[in-house]
């Protein structure tokens, strides 16, 4: 039996199931925030901000905050992202070969191709209508499959195979000759709208496997989109709980497009977050500059747990494991935003939360990925530290973490907001 209160991780599982795309993740976050008394604000409207909780959404990115004291001294920002590597449906998706109907897709982000083979997949995303409305859709049942070539026809498959992203990763969804427009007609019908009124779409493949606990003691947790819904969910939970922050404003900023570089009008490289923060101070530049100088940000994203079959791939002195608590990510070359001041910020937050923690550093000869931390820290000119959960199988269609770690990450976020 589990040795901890798994209510947070159970709730994370529900959040993941409700959030197959960034657009669904924002909608579900908004639903949870509104249930806790937060108000959604339209960016095009005039904001009259009083004590209370608020949020705004732009293109799969969400920023939420709580004002507990109208005399704002600083911001405590918990950053994350809403997107995940997957396959995105192309604008004209109907294709096929040799009597099979197929859907044309494009690789989105760093997808480990093999993890998507022979897996039941669905489709989810958003439709933008003629009148500008945005309609979410999720076909929550098996619909697509990328079939593996039988081993009899590929005897060297276990010796390693590089798949061609254009010709060998096209999913099937039926038999017969493809008809132009058929797939979008089907998706529109699932969404309850007229296909003729669909003027744009962002649709992605979705892994259907249910989140699950693993192991004799259920101490492991497996799901798709742990990277990075663990952080978005932790930020939501912490923000709702952050009722005693004085003149510091707790902020959750979870961005779309992190997995493809963040260079969009709603990504971490955009002025979205800066615009929101300036509006909280009535666009008073002097007040904004003073407040930013007194503020801090924690960029939260998953990191690599030490792999038992490949320990040589990890830095020998820094081998985080599931169950050991959140990590601080350190990089001399600033792939992660973590120097001495930032390390102290992390440790104060962890101390306030009363949780264990670990340190992650890449091997010198294996550069790791990066996060929104250096981007947002540079955009805002704000003290920023990179943190995250240690996981296995990062970017896979099925990732793995310690079952207790998501709750500890939420504790860390609350520690940032309240220390």
From TrEMBL:
Domain of life according to the entry:
Bacteria
Q: Which GO terms describe its molecular function?
A: aminopeptidase activity
Indicate yes or no for the key word Membrane: no
SUPFAM superfamilies according to UniProt? Aminopeptidase/glucanase lid domain, Zn-dependent exopeptidases
Give the enzyme's EC designation: 3.4.11.-
**Entries under PANTHER family matching the protein:** ASPARTYL AMINOPEPTIDASE (PTHR28570)
Task: State what protein this is by name.
Answer: M18 family aminopeptidase
Q: Which organism is it from?
A: Glycomyces niveus
């Amino acid at each position: 039996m589990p040795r901890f209160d798994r209510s947070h991780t159970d709730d994370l599982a529900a959040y993941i199931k409700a959030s197959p795309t960034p657009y669904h993740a924002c909608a579900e976050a908004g639903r949870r925030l509104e249930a806790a008394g937060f108000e959604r604000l339209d960016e095009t409207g005039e904001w009259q901000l009083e004590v209370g909780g608020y949020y705004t959404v732009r293109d799969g990115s969400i920023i939420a905050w709580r004002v507990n004291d109208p005399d704002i001294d600083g911001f405590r920002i918990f950053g994350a992202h809403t997107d995940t590597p997957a396959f995105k449906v192309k604008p004209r998706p109907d294709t096929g070969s040799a009597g099979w109907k197929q859907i044309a897709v494009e690789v989105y982000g760093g997808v480990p191709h093999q993890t998507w083979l022979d897996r039941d997949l669905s489709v989810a995303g958003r439709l933008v209508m003629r009148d500008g409305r945005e309609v979410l859709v999720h076909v929550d049942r098996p619909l697509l499959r990328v079939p593996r070539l039988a081993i009899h026809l590929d005897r060297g498959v276990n010796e390693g195979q590089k798949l061609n992203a254009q010709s060998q990763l096209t999913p099937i969804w039926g038999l017969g000759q493809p008809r132009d427009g058929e797939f979008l007609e089907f998706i529109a019908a699932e969404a309850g709208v007229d296909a003729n009124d669909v003027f744009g779409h962002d649709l992605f493949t979705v892994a259907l496997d249910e989140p699950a606990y693993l192991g004799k003691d259920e101490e492991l947790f497996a799901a798709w989109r742990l990277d990075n819904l663990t952080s978005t969910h932790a930020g939501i939970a912490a923000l709702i709980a952050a009722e005693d922050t004085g003149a510091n404003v707790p902020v959750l900023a979870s961005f779309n497009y992190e997995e493809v570089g963040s260079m969009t009008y709603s990504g971490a490289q955009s002025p979205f977050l800066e615009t929101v923060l300036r509006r909280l101070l009535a666009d008073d530049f002097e007040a904004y500059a003073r407040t930013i100088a007194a503020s801090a940000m924690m960029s939260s994203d998953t990191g690599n747990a030490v792999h038992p079959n490949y320990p040589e791939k990890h830095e020998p002195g820094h081998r985080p494991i599931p169950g050991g608590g959140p990590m601080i990510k350190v990089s001399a070359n600033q792939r992660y935003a973590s120097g001495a001041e930032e390390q102290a910020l992390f440790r104060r937050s962890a101390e306030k939360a009363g949780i264990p923690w670990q340190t992650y550093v890449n091997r010198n000869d294996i550069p790791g990925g990066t996060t929104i931390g250096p981007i947002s820290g540079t955009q805002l000119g704000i003290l920023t530290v990179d943190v995250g959960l240690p996981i296995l199988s990062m970017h896979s269609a099925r990732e793995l973490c310690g079952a207790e770690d998501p709750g500890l990450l939420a504790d860390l976020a609350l520690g940032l907001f309240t220390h």
